[in-house]
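Regression check, NAP case 316:
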Amino acid sequence: MEKKKLAIIGSGPAGYTAAIYAARANLSPILYEGFMTGPSGGQLMTTTEVENYPGFPEGILGPELMMNFRSQSARFGTQILTEDVESVDLSKRPFVVRGTSTHIEAEAIIIATGATAKRLDIEGARDGEFWQKGVTACAVCDGAAPIFKNRPLFVIGGGDSAVEEAIFLTKYGSRVYIVHRRDALRASKIMAQRALKHPKIEILWNSGIEKISGDQVVRKVHLKNFNDGKIEEREAGGVFFAIGHQPNTEFLKGQLEMNPTGYLIVKNGSTRTSCEGVFACGDVQDPTYRQAVTAAGTGCMAALDAERWLSEMESE
Ligand code: NAP
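Current build output:
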């Protein structure tokens, strides 16, 4: 089995930044960018303009930014594998990383597998029903599709994502409804105000979508009011889930300490996980900030932590 100093799993801003720093520190990292698990580049590959990443005063397209990250990591000698990691064995060192076609041993590992948007199991929203035919979990990726144009659109959730997606969708839909299960938004005050004031947005409080129906595409939602239990049918062109994210840590269960929702726990002020020699960065360990720039920042931290740990091991 090929032996590597450092394996990096994940190819968002965190993984690539870790690779840039590790490659420049002569650690010859190998980076698994994924294949079936989603596009190389992570969540920014499914966004349009990124306006808050410092250094780009005019903004930059998400995919372009991520291609830059990738090229920069390759330029310094990162070996990039276009495959998924199926499992890791962290029970002894060197660790074993089993990819779809490559098995390697690694002295240290950086986990940067990010998080994936959550979906609800509603009748009509499942695979083979209206999923990706009017039901999606990413307004920014799919909102411009012709099926949503001038139709009533429904966003489920009450956080910043729901508000952000609803505002984004006002460019396309005839009207946008935020369907929220409670009577108050979780979103930050400034975002909540934007939604409440927006002439094209209406918030349906204490409500949920029970069923989505249609023909080739979504035509109706069946809304339930949780206060009185009444069900109401409304015309609909699309349903967008904005109910948070699930960290991609399934393959690490039982091997690394996680919080109850599956986010990796890192030691205060560092990227060290519960297993010595394994580091975590980006959204996989961050339920709070979840920004490209914070992911990149923790990616840098993970590479520095790994480099220091590896040199301590060598000098022992
Ligand atoms: P979030 O803050 O966790 O909000 C998720 C929302 O979905 C909540 O309103 C929650 O309802 C609802 N929800 C969860 N499970 C549900 C279910 N099973 N059925 C119905 N509703 C459900 O997630 P987020 O909005 O993705 O934001 C995550 C983090 O990213 C936050 O820290 C946020 O501030 C940040 N963020 C910031 C921006 C920005 O500043 N521009 C944009 C996006 C995200 P309850 O309220 O009842 O729990």
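Comparison notes: Helices lie at 13-24, 62-75, 139-142, 160-169, 189-197, 292-315. Residues 120, 156-162, 164, 181-182, 186, 188, 242-244, 288, 290 surround NAP (CB under 6 Å). No diff flagged against the previous build.
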